[in-house]
Specification:
CATH superfamily of the largest domain: Periplasmic binding protein-like II
Number of helices: 12
Strand content: 15-25%
Distance between the termini: 53 Å
Number of strands: 11
Radius of gyration: 24 Å
CATH class of the largest domain: Alpha Beta
Number of domains: 3
Shape: elongated
Structural class: alpha/beta
Largest sheet: 7 strands, mixed
Order of helices and strands: HHHEEHEHEHEEHHEHEHEHEEH
């Protein structure tokens, strides 16, 4: 099979479109169609169903795509290892970050890493912790940086930094509930919550377990899927939240928000880099893991 035809097929599979595949490969749509048709003739199977303007992979298409991914990955790994022999770290690195690492911690770290290894091209995907871990497990991402830890076969979680969580709210909300004890306060507050699957929510649930409080029993007034949006909702007085100190540092400095200390509330968690142990890691990935282990802790402290 011609590697150019496999590449054309893979782009159609990923984009569900012949025209978008052509744009990515700088080829005309008829050329892309001809490459896919040639593969179908060679394999004697149909790789896509054309339903109107929709392109849907067949079962044979699904099988071929899984093997195509491995072909391209093996090619990139070979190039990366050859470059390493020349003392060059190169290649494309698909990595994921859950919301807080991707938005607050990774950008300055990846910028400095790139300055050291300018031939590495990084593609950063953002999701919640559960989503990123799932994509690493399924080999859609080579590495993930997340705020939660799972017991999962074939996955390794390497701690890279400690994060401080805090209970935060507006000064007015703190004043309104100042007469309540710790447990009653937690049960009475209106809460701005992160979504299911978020590492912050998992850490919050673990913290509240010390008070025998189920996070799902709290009076939730809003659920948000972005830490920055959460900080703005809190500043607007919508409720209280348990969140990373990094995400509300400007609001705490300005006095828009205040932290509330509660005895017995454990408020630390770790950030991890996660990878699939059954997958061969590119030299660039190994270098990035080492870099994060050596630098992420200091970055978190600087921003908190």
């Amino acid at each position: 099979m011609d590697i150019r035809k496999i590449e054309a097929f893979s782009k159609v599979y990923e984009n569900r479109s012949f025209s978008r595949a052509g744009k990515e490969l700088y080829l005309s749509q008829p050329t892309i169609s001809a490459h896919v048709a040639a593969l179908e003739q060679e394999l004697e199977v149909q790789l896509f169903d054309r339903i109107g303007r929709t392109v849907v992979p067949t079962k044979a298409g699904d099988v071929l795509y899984q093997h195509a991914k491995r072909i391209f990955e093996a090619s990139e790994l070979a190039i990366s290892e050859i470059r390493k022999l020349q003392d060059r770290i190169t290649g494309k690195l698909n990595l994921g970050g859950s919301t807080i690492p991707a938005n607050y911690i990774l950008p300055p770290l990846l910028a400095r890493f790139w300055q050291t290894y300018p031939e590495v091209i990084m593609d950063l995907h953002i999701g919640d912790t559960e989503d990123i871990v799932s994509r690493v497990r399924d080999n859609a991402l080579m590495l993930g940086v997340v705020g939660g830890h799972f017991e999962a076969p074939d996955l390794h979680f390497e701690p890279i930094a400690t994060d401080s969580l805090m209970l935060v709210m507006t000064p007015a909300l703190k004043e309104r509930y100042a007469h309540l004890g710790a447990e009653e306060l937690l049960r009475s507050l209106p809460w701005v919550m992160r979504e299911e699957g978020s590492g912050t929510r998992m850490a919050m649930a673990a913290s509240l377990a010390g008070f025998s409080i189920d996070v799902n029993s709290l009076r939730t007034v809003m659920m948000v899927r972005n830490a920055g949006a959460m900080a703005r909702c809190l500043s607007a007085g919508m409720g209280a939240a348990i969140t990373s100190a990094i995400t509300v540092a400007p609001e705490l400095r300005s006095g828009q928000l205040v932290s509330v200390d509660l005895p017995g509330l454990q408020m630390n968690r770790s950030f991890y880099v996660v990878f699939n142990t059954r997958r061969s890691l590119f030299p660039a990935a190994l270098k990035l893991i080492e870099y994060l282990k050596n630098n992420a802790e200091n970055q978190v402290r600087t921003q908190s």
